[in-house]
Amino acid sequence: MSIPSIGARANVTTAIAAASQKTGIDFNYLLGQAQVESGMRSNARARTSSATGLYQFIEQSWLGVVKEHGDKHGLGWASDSIRRTSSGRFVVSDPAARQAILSLRNDPETASLMAAEHASDNKDSLESSLGREATGTDLYMAHFLGIGGARKFLRAMDGNPSQSGANLFPAAARANRNVFYTPNGTPRSLGQIYERFAGKLDQGAASAGATGLASGQLDARFQQLVQSLGANAEVVLGNEAEGQDRNWLATIDRLESAGRLKNTALPPVNPLRPTPETAKLAYLMLARLGA
Fold first, then answer.
1. Three-state DSSP state, 26
2. How does pLDDT run across 101-151, given as a tens digit for each residue?
3. Alpha carbons 104 and 108: distance in angstroms, whole number
4. How many CA atoms does the CB half-sphere of 191 hold within 13 Å?
């Protein structure tokens, strides 16, 4: 995989920031998604599908979002060229126009705008059906499984987060074994899959230079963690976190797959002998407090 130049990454980041401002979709989420999907490379191409560009849109998804939102962003010519058939497929009769529209996936500004609009559509749909605010991870589930799949996944996880994701989504599991199974072949639960996506989004945003959280999950988990620690929170905050491993996914793995903290998740706190785990917790807390 080629690494984008500093200038190219700056152009991409600027395009994502503009898309966030125009649509209201969280910048850190869009940044994290671009990092996870393409490594911030606007010319990225998938080996096994038609997925292309910064946000790895497949052809049908791209034609659909351009048809719906292109006109408001100066792409009326593209939107007008796309027709939806009775079977639901999006088609463009002029081969040259079709190629030109699909090539826009490699333009950072257009790709970022369409990704943000697509996320906005998914956000509205999820919030309407779930009756709560959609998080960045919820939006990524819609990107990964489609809006119908995301609704099914999130409702099932609310009911029983420990059930196997592969049993519920066998076709997706066959195509994405690394998502639905551990390296030794053990099926991952719905909660584990969700938490891994949350972690990837946050890591992606951080590696791309974001200062906040892309998944939207850690703020609530942080508050729960502090409450669970009680008086020991001050001891943890007093531990020296500098120089420690700042990958706090090991701590996230200690959460219930639905996001609830396990009673056994928190390591015993010894004020005289900080451990790597308490150092990681300290870093998470200090980062949240802006230290």
1. coil
2. 999 999 999 999 999 999 999 999 999 998 989 998 999 999 889 999 999
3. 8
4. 16
Cα 88 from Cα 86, distance rounded (Å): 5
More confident residue, 264 or 173: 173
Q: How many CB atoms lie within 10 A of CB 214?
A: 32
Beta-bridge mates of residue 92: 82
Nearest Cα to Cα of residue 150 among 181, 122, 120, 175: 122
Nearest residue to 57 (alpha-carbon basis) of 39, 72, 44: 44
Pairing state between β 90-92 and 82-84: antiparallel
Query: What separation in angstroms does the CA of 141 have from each of 215, 229, 248?
Result: 11, 31, 22
First to last CA, the chain: 35
Residue 210, Ramachandran bin (φ over 0: left; ψ between -120 and 50: alpha; else beta): beta
**Using CA atoms, how far apart are residues 87 and 90, in angstroms rounded to an integer?**
9
Determine if the pTM surpasses 0.90: no
Of 174, 189, 125, the C-alpha closest to 151 is 125
How far apart CA 160 and CA 169 sit, in angstroms, is: 15
Q: Reduced to 3 states, what is the DSSP secondary structure of residue 125?
A: helix
At CA 255, angle to CA 211 and CA 215, rounded to 5?
30
DSSP, collapsed to helix, strand or coil, labels residue 181 as strand
Which domains are delineated in the chain? 6-207 (1.10.530.10), 218-288 (no CATH)
Nearest to 23 by CA among 140, 103, 112: 112
